[in-house]
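How a chain folds remains the central question behind the approach discussed here. This step matters because it turns folding into a mapping between discrete strings. The sequence in question and its structure tokens are set out directly beneath this paragraph.
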Amino acid sequence: MSEKTAFPLTLDTPLQYVKGVGPLIAQRLAKLNLHTAGDLLRHYPRRWEDRTLFAHAAQLRGGEFVTLCGLPLSVSTTQPRPGLSLTKALLDDQGAAVMLVWFNQPYMEQVFRKLITAKHPVVVYGQAKRSGMIVEIQNPEWEPLDETGDSLSSGRITPVYPATEGITQARLRRLTDHVLRECLPLIDEPLPPELRQRYRLIELREALQNIHYPTTFEALDAARRRLVFEEFFFMQLYLALQRHKLHTNSQGIRFHVSLEKLHQSLQAILPFPLTKAQQRAIAEIASDMSSGHLMNRLVQGDVGSGKTMVALAAILMTVQNGYQAALMAPTEILAQQHAIVLQRLLAPLDLRVELAIGSLSKREKQEVYERLRTGESLIAVGTHALIQEEVGFARLGLAIIDEQHRFGVLQRRALSRKGDQPHVLVMTATPIPRTLTLTLYGDLDVSVLDELPPGRKPITTHWRSRSKREQVYAAAERLLSDGRQAYIVCPLIEESEKLEAQSAAKLYDYIANKVYPHRRVGLLHGQMPPSEKEQVMLRFKAHELDVLVSTTVIEVGIDVPNASIIIIEDADRFGLAQLHQLRGRVGRGEYPSYCILLADPKTPEGKARMEIMVKTCDGFRIADEDLQLRGPGEFLGTKQSGLPNLHIADLLADRDVLVETRAAAFELVKQDPTLSSPQHRALREALQRLHTHLELASVS
């Protein structure tokens, strides 16, 4: 194609000024987020079809996808019923008959009449079906045979693009081919030669040509590897620069830590030995806090993996250095639980734990705040009450945020600002596959707790049809008779928390009056006032209730060691991560524990979720399976803004390349933290185009 625009194309040329586009087509392309010529080059095919060989209609059995070439002989349109038209064109493929069929596209009749008059052969691609002596292809891709042999849709490995209404594959191929010819010489190579050589990467221009129009499948693989590497590399380079900036510009309090002395203190107060994973995390925290740089570490652990004990160790390091520590939790009940556990463990060391929550009386709050402000108390546990304006600390050295995904960035920063550059430790019980941890938390140091403390009993999980509901309740009654307690979780109603509350009230009424009229049954849902919710949970913990009917508000909740069974109604409505969190409400004591999933899933994915839950209690394995089932976007949800816009890289399929690019990016930043050396100039410019807010030292 030698089409030219009225003026030379650049990568920034708006698409409406590209020849063959115009305002209307530009509007349609905008739906694909394509606005400039450069955007079109990064609009990668979603798949490629091998159309290198022409098939012969006479030899086809039917069912295969084929490329055929034939001469149109006749065309007609019929209307079998109102609202349906059929246009059929008959082709001659070297003596064999091929029937092309289009539904509700009557204009194709005029198109093919012109081809018949001109006796112009066409190339077609689609799924062939045999009907007697005739091969039929419905809604085929087609184009007139290019006599120069330079066809974009046949005789080659052919790209198939993400498209939209009014934009055909043929148009996308013509436009991309045109822009490639015009703009490829304008593409600058951002990756330095030594990096490309070390990781066996072809040049960017060659990669862009071969991702759209590969000469061989080997060339396509090389092109895709280069473009995937580049996408991940820029993402990791940005994270590496952010982390370097944090580590070099943020001077932290230098603590003096003796791991031997710390472990002696812990052994004296803990009723059980630490796991190897806990010891590793504590050593990593000690290294951070004694480095002189600000600690920003994520402790990621499964339900029951012992994150609180790791937090305890960090608190001890802080107070042993004469500084204060604050732990912020998302709910009052969780804050109270942390405070109770920490106070019990720290009492032998004569350390007082202050509780700062909204439900304290005005006088109690003033007394707590005064002890923190003067430094009389060294440890505070609370909710967002800790970041209120009137709360101050004498020497805050450590800020811990529990269930970090439940707090906004501003809330986390607000706690840090209560001191002069305190160390920051964030904790989450939501297992995230390592691939996504590298993506979302690449600017944090990560400690993973991947083993459970001794004595934690595995939870037996069963999946039962809802028709077995009464048998499940009868089995739970046997546990209740032995003195245990039970959770019953109400089905999830995504549309409305109010509807969910009504659903929970209805289930509560049924359970309390029909199933367990002789038991003490409680109700918990998100529409209740906070004080009422706290009261219900405390009553359940004190065994003043036998059964708690609840919505997902118990997903992150209090320890009730006596609760040994959780029944989840309509479990197929919940995601895997949520089911795993709910299951973690039991198995916290000495008794065998059970999770019963009541569900009749209608989809293969729903059945797969139930089977995974029955098969494993490993949160990280479940997270991996969840990622495979749902894909990264849905797995993370719309609230996560950290996920970059990936055009070709796949966080699942390309995880090896992600790990590779992380190592490459962090090594490069170590060597050249401002990307100021001449060989990194193009890299620096490309990164700043991607992240316009990125601040780098000026290059002279």
Notes: The chain has 22 helices and 21 strands. The first strand starts at residue 47 and ends at 50. The radius of gyration is 32 Å. Residues 217-249 form the longest helix (33 residues).
